[in-house]
TrEMBL record:
Family classification: Belongs to the peroxiredoxin family. BCP/PrxQ subfamily.
Name of this chain's protein: thioredoxin-dependent peroxiredoxin
Pfam family, one: AhpC-TSA
Reaction equation(s) it catalyzes: a hydroperoxide + [thioredoxin]-dithiol = an alcohol + [thioredoxin]-disulfide + H2O
Listed CDD domains: PRX_BCP
Length: 158
């Protein structure tokens, strides 16, 4: 079983390239972080999730939160995904699964009777002091962005 960081623990450190091949380092982000892991660009659930976070991004900005999506896809794939769906969120590329594994999102999955390793859709809410404030370990996309926003408002007492 993969170790998933727990609420109250320090968030695993990362310095990972985004869609423009710029390194994004957790230490440089001094605000709430919504770090969400998703399997693949341009698939129905992943597109819905990214669009929902984009739609609510002004509200996330208002509460001082940065939205960061992570998948094994390449920077080129992320750029096409962002352009195709007019996304306004940061997407990190993690083809070696280092960040995905550090957060316990690389897990055994089952589909049509077959088992395989893949990205489990999950979200981590990280406080400005880099502590894991909340975890959604098995995300269903419908209404997820709204529930993350609600949780930040609750924890930040906004």
């Amino acid at each position: 079983m993969t170790n998933i960081p727990q609420i109250g623990q320090p968030a695993p450190d990362f310095s990972t390239p985004d869609q423009n091949n710029n390194l994004v380092n957790i230490a440089d982000i001094n605000q709430w972080i919504v770090l969400y892991f998703y399997p693949k660009d341009n698939t129905p659930g992943c597109t819905t999730e990214a669009q929902d976070f984009t739609k609510l991004s002004p509200e996330f900005t208002t509460v001082g939160a940065k939205i960061i999506g992570v998948s094994p896809d390449s920077a080129t794939s992320h750029c096409k995904f962002i352009d195709k769906h007019n996304l306004s969120i940061t997407l990190l590329t993690d083809p070696e699964h280092q960040l995905i594994e550090a957060y316990g999102a690389w897990r055994l999955k089952k589909f049509m009777g077959k088992e395989y390793m893949g990205v489990a859709r999950s979200t981590f809410l990280i406080s400005p002091d880099k502590i894991i404030a909340y975890i959604w370990p098995n995300v269903k996309t419908k209404g997820h962005a709204e529930s993350v926003l609600k949780k930040i408002k609750e924890l930040a007492a906004i």
